[in-house]
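<goal> How does this chain fold?
<body> The protein record starts here
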Amino acid sequence: MQALMAKGGLSPDASGAFFLAEVPDPVPGRWDLLVRVAAVSVNPVDTKVHARLASGGERILGYDAVGTVAAVGEAVTGFAPGDRVYYAGDATRPGTDATLHLVDARIAAKAPQTLDDAAAAAMPLTSLTAYEALFDRLGLTDAARTNAGREVLVLGGAGGVGSMAIQLAVWAGARVIATASRSESAAWCRELGAHLVLDHSKDMPAALRSAGITDVGAIFCTTHMEAHWRAMAAMIAPQGALCLIDDPSGPLDITVFKSKCASIRWEFMFARSMYKTPDMARQGAILARVAALLDSGVVRPTLGKTRHGLDPAVFAEAHLAQRSGRMVGKQVVVF
């Protein structure tokens, strides 16, 4: 099979940062699906893993895919060759930027029937991250219109994860406050259902008070936690909960949340597959639920940019765009 290799120690636009290689076809294990990949997306984690690769180190990146099942492992149920599936993969295994890929069937689901490959490939990682953050970490109820009276603040609402978090929280009946710093990203958040949009480059606590809101019970910070740390401490309600996904560059003072007895929780979408937790099949169930929401039109796809070809130059462009911090929605590469 062909695989796109990323080389460590090089910026995405450097010669040799990405290259094609012929590698042996993978053989499915007991729980695996062998998938013929049709499209993948590029996420912030791709650029972070590339940046952390040792100089000269090589790795197949990619943490989202849609494709067709070519073979199944002996323990797999519910899937058969020919099924169209989508999934976010496993950080401990080779990535999806290849023509063939192995994934544990328990963290995959049938792809949304109403979406083409590009739109479907944009959904798994961000959907899982947003769903787990809202319903497994922040304690919202994961059913339609069941969270009346609850408010959620989504920092970085126009990104891939934020875009899904807004829609899922609205579906669940919560009042959503999102943040964005540009007019086009603010408009995107409103289109997705945000009731209020704050500018995270300005004084958010003051803007929240100006809108007549003293504090919020749940905050989901999707990016730049250090820049927003004290603002979040000011905006969180007593006994509220904060969920984080990005890594700080250094220690942070958690005592700013002490007087409010606020909970600080982490969301790491790969934890279930990385540690083979007893409930790892919940990810497959979540993706099936999201597929149903997409097919029914309750949730809209978040595809922002489509690129074409398992080509080093194409992936270099995608990585540079991802690192710009100006993405609205998701970008996908169709093979």
In short: The longest helix spans residues 124-137. Residues 2-123+271-334 form a domain with the Quinone Oxidoreductase; Chain A, domain 1 fold (CATH 3.90.180.10). The chain has a mean pLDDT of 96.
